[in-house]
Specification:
Layout lengths: L1 H26 L1 E7 L4 H15 L5 E7 L4 H14 L3 E5 L1 H10 L5 E4 L21 E4 L5 H12 L3 E7 L3 H16 L3 E7 L5 H8 L5 E4 L3 H4 L2 H11 L3 E3 L12 E5 L1 H16 L4 H4 L1 E2 L7 E6 H7 L5 H5 L3 E4 L2 E4 L3
Parallel strand pairs: 1-2, 1-3, 3-4, 4-5, 5-11, 6-7, 6-8, 8-9, 9-10, 12-13
Antiparallel strand pairs: 10-12, 13-14
Helix pairs in contact: 2-10, 3-4, 7-9
Protein name: ABC-type uncharacterized transport system, periplasmic component
Keywords: Signal
Length: about 325
């Protein structure tokens, strides 16, 4: 009898501890994050989400998963999150977000950095009239303005682009870039890839036929941007990489796009709004329209090597200049 009572007594603290942990877990919002691949832009989004939510009074836990560029893995991760009973899930890049949206209909799905949410089938429209559990942040770039500026710099007869044929974002950007090139009577030379291991070979396959290389927001391609830079550098072809986050250690001429940490912070704000009671339907797809949310970079060392002059007006609009191997923030 005494032994039984002793065991019961010893079990009470353990039971209370387990109950306490369960209460903490139940009070916290369990968030699953599915990221397409690890590269500076997507890693920055993930970090921005975590850092922003850490500044709030919300209690959250994270289960961070990496698809390693595989769509089948994105589907498996979505199923895992379903089995784990997540309260909210986040898809960083299109395939993970699509997989989550297909698996989950009863909890909020937040997307981060989706160029074309409508084309990706994540939203029914941009009017917020359809009932949905999906919402988030778009990283649609000002492609026309980007290419017009690039054309004014290098005056090309032909432009090369590598894109991922299985990614809705990559295809959408390719089609838009092709259309703009046709309007400006610039020959458009595209190379399709299915995974990051093919990026360098794709660059090599077109580099002798182009006067410039344009890399749009395409997660699989950007994850191997250093190999594109290497090919362009050896061939003396100017590179325009629209992902500034991955441009610091490559030989680009021009880089113009989002600071993806900011995209992560904005995605975190969407998560906060949902946890505090707002419906995904009323949030919808959020686009950035403020020019200050974009960054323009020039690599003056590479410009000099290529014999390309950048006029003072363009330089005055730059946020970052690379000169003598050093990164310099431009004062405004």
């Amino acid at each position: 009898m005494k032994k039984t009572m002793l065991i019961a007594f010893l079990l009470v603290p353990a039971m209370l501890f387990a109950q306490s942990n369960a209460e903490v877990k139940n009070n916290a919002t369990n968030i699953g994050i599915s990221k397409m691949v690890s590269h500076p832009a997507l890693d920055s989004i993930e970090q921005g989400i975590e850092d922003y939510l850490a500044t709030t009074d919300l209690s959250v836990t994270f289960d961070k998963q990496n698809c390693n560029g595989e769509i089948s893995t994105a589907v498996a991760i979505a199923q895992k999150f379903k089995s784990d009973g997540k309260d909210l899930v986040i898809g960083i890049a299109t395939p993970p977000a699509q997989a989550l949206a297909q698996v989950f209909t009863d909890i909020p799905v937040v997307f981060g950095a989706i160029t074309d949410p409508l084309g990706a089938g994540l939203v029914a429209n941009y009017d917020r009239t359809e009932d949905t559990n999906v919402c988030g942040i778009s990283d649609l770039n000002p492609v026309r303005l980007q290419l017009e500026t690039y054309f004014s710099l290098i005056k090309p007869k032909s432009i090369g682009m590598i894109y991922t044929s299985s990614e809705a974002n990559g295809v959408a950007m390719m089609e838009l870039a092709k259309q703009i090139c046709e309007e400006y009577q610039v020959k458009f030379v595209a190379a399709a890839i299915s995974n990051s291991s093919e990026v360098k070979m794709a660059a090599l396959s077109i580099i002798d036929r182009v006067d410039g290389m344009y890399i749009a927001i395409d997660n699989t391609v950007v994850s191997a941007i250093s190999s594109v830079s290497e090919v362009c550098n050896k061939a003396g072809v100017p590179l325009f990489n629209t992902d500034t986050t991955s441009s610091e250690n490559i030989d680009f001429l021009m880089s113009w796009g989002f600071n993806y940490y900011t995209v992560g912070v904005e995605t975190g704000k969407v998560v906060e709004r949902i946890i505090k009671g707002e419906k995904p339907k009323d949030i919808g797809a959020i686009f950035f329209n403020d020019p200050t949310q974009f960054e323009l970079w020039f690599n003056l060392d590479n410009a000099k090597k290529l014999g390309i002059a950048i006029d003072a007006d363009l330089l005055s609009k730059a946020s970052i200049l690379i000169e003598n191997g050093q990164k310099r923030q431009v004062s405004k």
